[in-house]
Design goal:
Blueprint: H1 8-32, H2 37-46, H3 48-68, H4 74-97, H5 112-118, H6 125-144, H7 152-174, H8 178-182, H9 192-199, H10 201-207, H11 222-233, E1 249-255, E2 268-269, H12 275-280, E3 286-290, H13 298-307, H14 320-323, H15 334-339, E4 344-349, H16 358-365, E5 369-372, H17 390-403, E6 408-413, E7 433-434, H18 438-465, E8 472-478, H19 486-491, E9 503-510, E10 520-522, H20 527-534, H21 541-552, E11 555-556, E12 561-563, E13 566-568, H22 573-590, H23 596-599
Parallel strand pairs: 1-6, 1-8, 3-10, 4-5, 4-6
Antiparallel strand pairs: 2-7, 3-9, 8-9, 11-12, 12-13
Helix pairs in contact: 1-3, 1-4, 2-3, 3-4, 3-7, 9-10, 11-21, 17-18, 21-22
Length: 601
C-alpha cells in the first residue's frame, strides 16, 4: 500500500490543481462574456452548481496531465496553457463573428499555419512579447520548484480516476442526464448564444459534442417524403429565360467578405469603389444575397448555394461541412444534378484545400476536380503578403471554361478580401473615407480598396465572357459582410438592422440574353433554381419545391425573414406548410434515410 500513499507535497499540489480548475473556469467564462468579470460573478451567483461542475472538470483535466507526463509540474502547466488558449480563441471568435467556439471549430487546428496567416496583424506585438515572457518565466519556475516523486501505481490510479471522471462528465452532459438537469443544465441547442451564456462554456461546449445538425421532424417516413416528392413533381416548369442553343457553362463566384461599402450611412468616400457594379446592375439580374452568416463561416453560405439546403433549419453554430458531409459518401447538389445532364464539375479555391475539409467534401458533392492554392503557384498576388487576387482567380476560371469541350459547372471561392484589413496588404489605398472615427479609418479604407479591386475583376469577367464560344452564365455574390471593427457598424446604426448586416451584393452576368429583372433579396439556397430558370433549364422536383418557398420567403434566415412584401415577424399557415416540407426533405438528406435523393433529383 505504500505505493499509493500520497506525500504532503502531492497533497498541496492536488489542492493547487483544484484551485486551478476554479480559476480556469472563471477565466473561460469571462472570455465568453466579453471579459466582463461582474457578469461572470452574476452568472456564478445564479448557476453556482454549473460553475462548480465545470471547475471540477478542469481539475480532473489538470490531474490527468499531471499523472500522464513524467514531471508533475509540466503536465498541469501544459493543460493550463491549453485551456487559456481555448479561452482566447473563444473570445476572438466571439468578437469577430458574434458566435462562441464550438467543438467542430477545433477541426481547423490542422490548418494552424494558414490560420496564422489569416490572423496576422490581429494580435499586437506587445501581447506576443508578454506571452513569450510569461512562458519563459513559467519554464524558469518549473526548474526551481521542488520535485514531487510519485510511484507508478499511484500515477496509474490518478490517471484512471481522472480519465473516468472526464469521460463520465462528457456522458452526463452530452446525454442530458437527470443529474445534469439537477445542476440546472439545459442544452439550448437551438440558440447557442443563450446556451453558452446560461450554461457556461464548459457545459455548453460539452453538450455540443453529440449535437445533430437538426432533429427528426414529426411524421418522418418514406411515405411522407414520397408524398412531398409527388406534390412538387406535378408542378409545371416555369423557366423565365429562353433555353440556350446548347447547354450553358455555369460559373459560381462566391467572393470573400464582399458587400457594398457605399451603403454605410454617414460615410463619404472620395470615389465610387464599385463603378462597374453600380453601372451594370440595372442592365442584368441583380440584387442582394441574404447571407446566413456574418464575418465568417464561409462554408455555410457555400453549403446553401451548392445543396439548396437552408441553415435556417440547423442548430445554431452548425457547420455541415465539418459535422456531417465529410462523413457521407454522396449528397445531392447542383453538382450532381448537372453531372447527370452531361456537365463536368470543377471547384476553384485559391487557398488551402483542407480548409473546412473542402478536399473531402467536394468529392461527396460530386466535383470532378478541385484546384487550390497549391496548384496556382504562379497566380498573381497584389503584394507578397496578400492572398491570390480576385482577378487572378477569374483568369484561372476563364482559362478552365475556354479549355473545356463539354458544358462546365465551375464553382469558385475567392480569398482576396479576407480579414485582417491591414493597410497596404493589397497595395496602396486610393479612396479616402470621411465620417469614420480615426482609429478605424485605415481599416475601412483598406477594405474599400479591396472592394474596388473586386469590382475591377468583375468588369474583367464580363469582358472575358464575350470571348467564350459556349453560352456562359456567371453568378457573383459576397459570402458575408466583413469582420470590420464592431464600432464601424455601431456608428452606422446597423447593430439592430440585421437585414443590412446580412445583405451582400448579388449579380448575374452572361454572354447571352438573360434579361434584367431585379432579383430582390435572395437566400443562397435559391441560387440553383434561379440560374436554371434564367438559362431555360428544366427544374428537378427539389428545385420546384425551392421555387415555391422562394415565392413566399425569398429571404430565409434565422436572423431575418423576408417575404414577398418585406420583412416578416410571423409566418402564415401556407408559409409554415412549405417550410415543413422543406425541413422534412432536408432532414431526410442530411440525417435520415435519403429517400429524396432518388425521388426529387
Amino acid at each position: 500500500m505504500r505505493y499509493f500513499r500520497p506525500s504532503r507535497k502531492l497533497g498541496f499540489m492536488l489542492l493547487g490543481l483544484l484551485l486551478g480548475g476554479f480559476v480556469l473556469n472563471f477565466f473561460i467564462q469571462a472570455a465568453s462574456l466579453d471579459m466582463n468579470f461582474m457578469s461572470v460573478l452574476n452568472w456564478i451567483g445564479k448557476s453556482y452548481w454549473l460553475y462548480v461542475g465545470g471547475s471540477l472538470f478542469f481539475f480532473f483535466v489538470l490531474l490527468a496531465f499531471s499523472a500522464v507526463l513524467p514531471n508533475m509540474y509540466i503536465g498541469p502547466v501544459s493543460g493550463f496553457l491549453l485551456v487559456i488558449l481555448l479561452g482566447i480563441a473563444n473570445y476572438k471568435k466571439q468578437s469577430t463573428t458574434g458566435e462562441p467556439l464550438f467543438p467542430w471549430d477545433l477541426m481547423l487546428v490542422k490548418n494552424a499555419g494558414e490560420m496564422s496567416k489569416i490572423t496576422k496583424g490581429m494580435i499586437s506585438p506587445l501581447a506576443v512579447g508578454l506571452a513569450v515572457f510569461a512562458v519563459a518565466a513559467i519554464i524558469w519556475l518549473l526548474f526551481k520548484l521542488p520535485r514531487i516523486r510519485v510511484q507508478l501505481p499511484l500515477r496509474l490510479l490518478l490517471t484512471a480516476v481522472s480519465a473516468g471522471m472526464i469521460a463520465g462528465f462528457i456522458v452526463m452532459v452530452s446525454g442530458q442526464t437527470t443529474f445534469a438537469s439537477s445542476l440546472n443544465y439545459q442544452n439550448i441547442f437551438w440558440n447557442q448564444k443563450v446556451n453558452y451564456s446560461q450554461n457556461g462554456f464548459v457545459f455548453a461546449f460539452t453538450g455540443n459534442l453529440r449535437q445533430n445538425l437538426l432533429e427528426q421532424p414529426e411524421g418522418y417516413s418514406r411515405e411522407s417524403v414520397e408524398a412531398i416528392a409527388a406534390k412538387y413533381n406535378s408542378l409545371p416548369d416555369t423557366a423565365s429565360g429562353q433555353a440556350a442553343v446548347e447547354q450553358p457553362n455555369i460559373l459560381f463566384m462566391m467572393d470573400e467578405a464582399f458587400f457594398d461599402p457605399t451603403r454605410l450611412p454617414g460615410i463619404t468616400l472620395s470615389d465610387d469603389p464599385l463603378k462597374f457594379i453600380h453601372q451594370a446592375e440595372s442592365a442584368t439580374p441583380s440584387g442582394y444575397l441574404l447571407s446566413p452568416e456574418f464575418g465568417g463561416n464561409t462554408a455555410n453560405v457555400e453549403f446553401e448555394a451548392l445543396t439548396g439546403m437552408s441553415m435556417y433549419f440547423l442548430g445554431d453554430g452548425s457547420i455541415p461541412y465539418q459535422q456531417r458531409i465529410v462523413k457521407m459518401s454522396s449528397l445531392p447538389s447542383i453538382v450532381s444534378i448537372l453531372k447527370e445532364r452531361g456537365y463536368q464539375a470543377l471547384a476553384l479555391h485559391p487557398f488551402d484545400e483542407t480548409f473546412y475539409n473542402r478536399n473531402r467534401v467536394y468529392p461527396v458533392l460530386g466535383f470532378d476536380r478541385f484546384t487550390s492554392e497549391k496548384d496556382l503557384q504562379e497566380a498573381e498576388r497584389i503584394t507578397p503578403d496578400g492572398y491570390i487576387s480576385d482577378k487572378a482567380a477569374v483568369q484561372e476560371a476563364i482559362r478552365e471554361l475556354k479549355a473545356a469541350d463539354t458544358p462546365t459547372f465551375l464553382h469558385m471561392v475567392t480569398m482576396q478580401n479576407h480579414f485582417p484589413f491591414t493597410k497596404g496588404r493589397n497595395g496602396p489605398n486610393t479612396i479616402t473615407a470621411q465620417g469614420v472615427q480615426a482609429e478605424w479609418k485605415d481599416e475601412l479604407e483598406t477594405y474599400v480598396q479591396d472592394t474596388k479591386l473586386t469590382d475591377e475583376a468583375l468588369s474583367y469577367l464580363q469582358q472575358e465572357l464575350k470571348t467564350i464560344e459556349r453560352p456562359t452564365i456567371a453568378v457573383f455574390w459576397g459570402d458575408h459582410l466583413p469582420a470590420l471593427s464592431a464600432g464601424i457598424y455601431t456608428d452606422a446604426g446597423w447593430d439592430q438592422e440585421l437585414r443590412l448586416k446580412h445583405e451582400t451584393k448579388l449579380m448575374i452576368l452572361a454572354n447571352f440574353d438573360i434579361g434584367h429583372t431585379p432579383l430582390g433579396t435572395l437566400s443562397p439556397a435559391y441560387l440553383g433554381p434561379a440560374v436554371f430558370k434564367l438559362s431555360g433549364q428544366t427544374l428537378p422536383p427539389y428545385y420546384k419545391m425551392l421555387e415555391q418557398v422562394r415565392a413566399q420567403l425569398p429571404g430565409l434566415s434565422k436572423n431575418v425573414l423576408i417575404g414577398a412584401s418585406g420583412e416578416l415577424s410571423d409566418l402564415t399557415s401556407e408559409q409554415q406548410a412549405l417550410l415543413d416540407d422543406y425541413r422534412m426533405v432536408e432532414y431526410d438528406l442530411l440525417e435520415g434515410e435519403g429517400y429524396a435523393a432518388d425521388l426529387m433529383f
